[in-house]
Amino acid sequence: MGRIEDAFARRAAERRKTLVTYLCVGDPDGDASIDLALACAEEGADVLELGCPFSDPSADGAAIARASQRALGRGGGLAETLRVASAVRARSDVPIVLFGYYNPLFVRGEEEAARAVAAAGVDALLVVDLPVDESMPLRAAAASHGLGLVPLVAPTTLPERVARIGALGERFPVPFVYYVSMTGITGGAGASAVLARASAEAARVRSATKRPTVVGFGIDSHARARVAAESADGVVVGSEIVRRIERGATHAERLAGVRELVRELRGAV
């Protein structure tokens, strides 16, 4: 988990913000995902979220749902995601978060899943459908293998739940907190006022949890990234990266589109 902490500390020392980028592993295929992930890092992404495709991505919008279906249709899943993570780790020291849903980890077994994830060079897990109150077995298994577990906080999260996250961070590795800018699913364009409020709320969550807090959902451009990053420690961008990959007719076009977007975002934050 130290790589993630170092990334946030480095940007804070520079008075800049941390850029987290997401892509769905296996879309369009595993080898392309390796190149695309490394391209994000080369263009200035501080943390990579490697998304494990899942058949019922309930928190994700249409773009990521389509990417998951394409990846699963080509045989993707947790094993392929770990292969890609291992290949990225072999070529880069960029921090990696495995982003996904609980079922594939549960089916493998929490202890074995944590062991395999750590062996692949991943630094932390973000399990979008696992509530904090139900996370203790996985949190303990992850910690035993040096993995952090990233919690989600939404506009509807009660202060006492935020305080619980802060308390958990005193016992288990919590590398950062992901603040969801709006209720609903990924992929929508966030209005400036919504993102400004989310940025201010992220600062309050950081104060309450003593953990860096980033804003995600609704950030798809230089302007929106700048607004969301104002008071937060960083931003997460996923759906627009997935859309750039989807629109590319060739591998070269996909790489060019993703590189252009990440450069733009890096300049914003």
Care to describe what's here?
The protein has 269 residues and is α/β, with parallel strands linked by helices. The protein has helices at 2-13, 30-42, 62-73, 78-91, 102-108, 110-119, 136-144, 159-168, 192-209, 222-229, 239-247, 251-268, and strands at 18-24, 47-51, 96-100, 124-127, 148-149, 152-153, 177-180, 213-216, 234-237. The chain has one domain (2-268): TIM Barrel (Alpha-Beta Barrel), CATH 3.20.20. A nine-stranded parallel sheet has the order 5-4-3-2-1-9-8-7-6. α2 (30-42) links the parallel β1 (18-24) and β2. α5 (102-108) crosses α6 and α6 runs parallel beside α7 (136-144).
Q: How much of the polypeptide forms β-strand, as a percent range?
A: 5-15%
- CATH top level class name: Alpha Beta
Main β-sheet description: 9 strands, parallel
Beta strand count: 9
The chain-level mean pLDDT equals 94
List the domain count as a whole number.
1
Terminus-to-terminus distance: 23 Å
The class by helix and strand makeup works out as: alpha/beta
Given the C-alpha coordinates, what overall shape results?
globular
What's the CATH topology name? TIM Barrel
Rounded to an integer, what's the Rg over CA atoms? 17 Å
Helix content: 40-55%
The named CATH superfamily: Aldolase class I
**Uncertain spans, ≥5 residues at pLDDT below 50?**
none
Q: Assign the CATH architecture.
A: Alpha-Beta Barrel
